[in-house]
Design goal:
This protein is mainly alpha-helical. The chain has one domain: Glycerol uptake facilitator protein. Helices cover about 70% and strands about 0% of the residues. It has 8 helices and no strands. Helix 1 runs parallel beside helix 4, helix 3 packs antiparallel against helix 4 and helix 5 runs parallel beside helix 8. The longest helix has 23 residues. The two termini are about 25 Å apart. The model has no long low-confidence stretch (mean pLDDT about 95).
Length: about 210
């Protein structure tokens, strides 16, 4: 149960930060820095307890890699999605009355952008947080947070820089993204996590659990 509590708390603050920094009055082009930073500190906070997934796509990748039990997966996903609902409701309360305009995305570019950087995020997580070659390292939180920050800067204008199905649900609830676009994130993010796990298995065939 403690794993799921940590996953809920960290995912909640990740999505809360997204909403509070993006919705007016937000912090404009500095939002990716705050989002990457909160993910970084939450990874350091809960990595030793839950593995610091905070993202259904990462959970899928870690499960396929062999570092998350099949029976644990539903608990992770439920905790992450409940956190998305709670964080979104909190943002809507705190920013009540502010008009929010949903981002309009082009399906093809958004699919590719979300796939590429979700793959990058999941692949970084697998290598810095689950690999025997980096066991006991002290940099994994920075690496993971910076990956999200870089992705948000690089393709945020194309897809919103989501890279996380729970975040996709959250921004849909906040009105930052149209519900009709949700499938784009679900497909691209989950595919990115699956491919990251497959590539990890190819590049690290002797890693326990791979």
């Amino acid at each position: 149960m403690k794993k799921y509590i940590v996953e809920f708390i960290a995912t909640f603050f990740l999505i809360l930060t997204i909403g509070m920094t993006v919705i007016s009055p937000g912090i404009g082009s500095f939002a990716p820095i705050a989002i990457g930073a909160v993910l970084m500190v939450m990874v350091f906070m809960g990595g030793h307890i839950s593995g610091a997934h905070y993202n259904p796509a990462v959970t899928i990748a870690v499960w396929l890699r062999g570092k998350c039990g099949t029976l644990e997966v539903p608990g992770y996903l439920i905790a992450q999605l409940l956190a998305a609902v709670a964080a979104s409701a909190t943002v809507c309360y705190l920013k009540g009355g502010i008009e929010v305009e949903a981002m309009q995305i082009a399906v093809g570019p958004a699919l590719l952008a979300e796939f590429l950087f979700t793959f990058a995020l999941a692949y970084v997580v697998l290598n810095v947080a689950t690999s025997k070659g980096t066991a006991g390292n002290s940099f994994y939180g920075v690496a993971i947070g910076m990956t999200v920050m870089v992705g948000a800067f690089a393709v945020g204008g194309i897809s919103g820089g989501v890279f996380n199905p729970a975040v996709a649900v959250g921004i849909s609830m906040m009105g930052l993204s149209a519900w009709s676009s949700l499938w784009v994130y679900l497909v691209a993010n989950c595919a990115g996590g699956v491919v990251a796990a497959l590539v990890f298995k190819i590049t690290s065939p002797n890693d326990p659990g791979a």
